[in-house]
């Protein structure tokens, strides 16, 4: 990131998120200019953590689980649903919970019961008592309506009914907007996984609290598509 971009980013973060978040974001991005670095904030949410009943309601929208074959038939190549991603997700048995307005797809999120790739070389592991939520997406024309949060809350209710403790996921530590959004929904941060890739080697460190959630990252045994 060039100096001018850093200054603009710092100014924007100061206005939106405050000084601490702004400095962290710029330091994070500067470090990534030097090497491939990531800090993943692990988080969980249980049904009892969702305090706002409005997060389960979206008038005019219906939600349901939709299988990869249906998505491939109607939406393959659109809304970040590539054929390769849909194929891999189906092989793992991952499930998609989507919101529709009429027949139009408005928002979706994916849910996994097994270690899941976060990029083309890394797998995220987690306690199977939880369901891992990833790849949330809202169609541009429907953004700003909290549909992503509504979809997660409805899916959380479904998985809780099936015996799961809750949802588990992560947000990059410099993504202040997302961190605030998930906190409002009820997510709680439990720890951080640090990743550094340099000189063809991977270095990872999970903070001690991550152990309670079986939350860690390891190299994939074979190349996998980018699906984060």
Describe this protein's structure.
- The protein is an alpha+beta fold.
- The chain folds into two domains: 34 residues; 185 residues, 3-Layer(aba) Sandwich (Aminopeptidase), CATH 3.40.630.
- It contains six helices and eleven strands.
- The strands form two sheets. It has an eight-stranded mixed beta sheet. A three-stranded antiparallel beta sheet has the order 5-6-11, with no helix packed on it.
- Strand 3 and strand 4 form a beta hairpin.
- Helix 1 packs antiparallel against helix 2 and helix 3 packs antiparallel against helix 4.
- The C terminus is likely disordered.
Q: In terms of per-residue confidence, which ranges show pLDDT below 50 for 5 or more consecutive residues?
A: 223-228
- The tally of strands reads 11
- Residues in helices, as a percent range: 25-40%
The amount of beta strand, in percent, is 25-35%
Order of helices and strands: HHEEHHEEEEEHEHEEE
- End-to-end Cα distance, whole Å, is 22 Å
Strand order of the largest sheet: 2-3-4-7-8-1-9-10
CATH-scheme architecture of the largest domain: 3-Layer(aba) Sandwich
Q: Main beta sheet, described?
A: 8 strands, mixed
Given the C-alpha coordinates, what overall shape results?
A: globular
CATH C-level label of the largest domain: Alpha Beta
CATH superfamily of the largest domain: Gcn5-related N-acetyltransferase (GNAT)
Residue-averaged pLDDT: 88
Secondary structure class reads alpha+beta
Total number of domains: 2
CATH names the topology of the largest domain as: Aminopeptidase
Number of helices: 6
Compute the CA-based radius of gyration: 18 Å
